[in-house]
Design brief:
Strand content: 5-15%
Distance between the termini: 133 Å
Order of helices and strands: EEHHEE
Helix content: 40-55%
Number of helices: 2
Largest sheet: 2 strands, antiparallel
Structural class: alpha+beta
Strand order of the largest sheet: 1-2
Oligomer: single chain
Length: 129
């Protein structure tokens, strides 16, 4: 049976850095730097997972809020439509008799407000005709 020999430097990753002559040299990562890299990768993965979960939660929450607001808008628009129809119905039923019942009187000599051409101001015309 053949025996396999593993050397300690075989388990490290070599990184080449360029020398002035164009040749490279191998730099091995130590055990401590590999642990740092592992925990950095784990930390980034956990942070990314939490950010993804928060993004999904925020999207679902905003969709629910939007649906609730659209429902409120529909209810308010239906109430507004009913009020507009009531207004139009009351407006069409107004007559001179109805106005007199509420205390309005016919004006015999109306007062007019006119704009003076020279001063750009409004004046009350009280001339009786």
């Amino acid at each position: 049976m053949r025996r396999i020999h593993i050397h300690e430097s075989q388990l490290t990753l070599p990184f080449l850095s360029a020398k002035a002559g164009g040749e490279g040299r191998a730099v091995a990562l130590s055990l401590e730097s590999r642990q740092r890299f592992f925990w950095l990768t784990v930390s980034i993965s956990v942070f990314s997972l939490l950010a993804y979960i928060y993004g999904i939660y925020a999207t679902a929450h905003h969709i629910a809020v939007r649906a609730h607001l659209e429902e409120q808008v529909a209810n308010i628009e239906s109430k507004l439509g009913a009020l507009e129809f009531a207004y139009i119905g009351l407006k069409n039923n107004v007559s001179m008799d109805t106005a007199h019942q509420f205390g309005f009187k016919d004006v015999r000599t109306p007062l007019y407000v006119s704009r003076d051409a020279h001063t750009d101001s409004l004046t009350l015309n009280t001339i009786k005709r």
